[in-house]
C-alpha cells in the first residue's frame, strides 16, 4: 500500500492515486509542448488557491471537524455560518463557501426521512446567490430538495445576475430552469427591466373591464364597455414598491408568488405584502 506524507491510502484513494500517476507520468509526457502548457495552466488555475498560505490551505487541508459534518448539524440542531467574505478573500472565499455548500447539498440528498427517528427540516440560506451558484448541481438539487425537507433561500438582485454566471451554453434557459424549480418567489423593489418583465409574465394576465367614451358629430357622448387582457402586475409596479427606511415608516413591500396557491379574498395567484424592517 502506498503512502502520501506518511499516511496510508484507502483502496479508493489508491485507485485515484494510480489514475493520477498514470496520467502525469505517461499520458501527459506524450503530449505536445503547447498542449502540455495549456493543461498545466488550467490545472494551476484550479489548485493555486489551495497552494498559497491562504484560507483554503488553512481550513481545507487538515481534515474535517465533527461540528461541520452536515449529518451532525442535522442531528444536533446546529446552524453553520460561512464567514469567508468575497470582498476580503476574493476567489478563495467563493471556493470556500461553495465547497461547504456542495457538501451540505450532497449530504441532504442522501437523507432518508423515513429512517430518521426525529426528522427535522433544514434550510440553505445564501445571500448574493449569484456568487455561489453552480448551474448544474443547483438545478438538480432543487428537483429533489423538498423530498429531503430542505428549504433553499437564494437571494439575488436580478435575473441577469444568474444569466451572467450560467456560462456560454444557453444561459437564459439555464437561469429560467433553476428559477422554475424555486417554489416560492418574492420580488422586492427592483429597477431591472428583464427581472420585472419576467415576473410580470410569470404571474400572468387577466381581463379588465374598460369604459370607452365616444362623441358623435353633434358632440353627443356615448359609452361602451369592453374587456382587455392586461398584466395582473404591471412591470412598473415593481419599481414602486416601498423599500423601508424612515420615509416609508420602515415598511417594506414585496410581490409574492407561489404556483398552486391563491392569496387573499380575491383568490389571486400573487399578493402584495408588507413587513416591518425593524425587529423591535
UniProtKB/TrEMBL annotation:
This is TraM recognition domain-containing protein. It comes from Flavobacterium litorale. It comes from the Bacteria. InterPro entries: P-loop_NTPase, TraG-D_C. Residues 121-227 form the TraD/TraG TraM recognition site domain. Pfam families: TraG-D_C. Transmembrane segments: none annotated. SUPFAM superfamilies: P-loop containing nucleoside triphosphate hydrolases (SSF52540).
Amino acid at each position: 500500500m502506498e503512502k502520501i506524507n506518511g499516511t496510508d491510502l484507502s483502496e479508493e484513494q489508491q485507485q485515484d492515486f494510480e489514475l493520477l500517476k498514470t496520467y502525469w507520468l505517461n499520458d501527459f509526457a506524450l503530449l505536445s509542448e503547447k498542449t502540455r502548457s495549456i493543461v498545466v495552466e488550467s490545472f494551476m488555475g484550479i489548485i493555486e488557491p489551495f497552494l498559497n498560505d491562504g484560507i483554503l490551505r488553512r481550513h481545507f487541508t487538515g481534515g474535517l471537524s465533527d461540528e461541520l459534518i452536515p449529518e451532525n448539524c442535522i442531528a444536533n440542531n446546529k446552524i453553520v455560518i460561512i464567514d469567508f467574505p468575497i470582498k476580503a478573500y476574493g476567489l478563495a472565499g467563493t471556493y470556500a463557501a461553495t465547497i461547504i455548500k456542495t457538501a451540505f447539498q450532497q449530504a441532504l440528498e442522501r437523507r432518508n426521512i423515513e429512517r430518521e427517528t426525529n426528522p427535522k427540516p433544514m434550510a440553505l440560506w445564501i445571500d448574493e446567490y449569484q456568487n455561489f451558484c453552480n448551474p448544474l448541481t443547483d438545478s438538480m438539487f432543487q428537483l429533489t430538495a423538498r423530498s429531503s425537507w430542505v428549504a433553499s433561500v437564494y437571494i439575488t438582485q436580478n435575473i441577469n445576475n444568474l444569466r451572467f454566471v450560467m456560462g456560454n451554453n444557453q444561459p437564459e434557459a439555464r437561469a429560467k430552469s433553476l428559477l422554475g424549480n424555486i417554489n416560492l418567489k418574492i420580488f422586492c423593489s427592483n429597477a431591472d427591466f428583464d427581472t420585472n418583465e419576467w415576473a410580470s409574465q410569470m404571474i400572468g394576465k387577466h381581463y379588465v373591464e374598460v369604459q370607452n367614451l365616444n362623441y358623435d358629430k353633434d358632440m353627443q357622448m356615448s359609452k361602451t364597455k369592453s374587456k382587455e387582457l392586461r398584466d395582473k402586475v404591471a412591470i412598473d409596479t415593481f419599481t414602486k414598491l416601498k423599500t423601508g427606511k424612515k420615509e416609508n415608516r420602515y415598511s417594506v413591500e414585496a410581490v409574492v408568488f407561489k404556483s398552486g396557491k391563491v392569496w387573499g379574498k380575491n383568490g389571486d395567484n400573487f399578493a402584495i405584502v408588507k413587513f416591518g424592517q425593524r425587529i423591535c
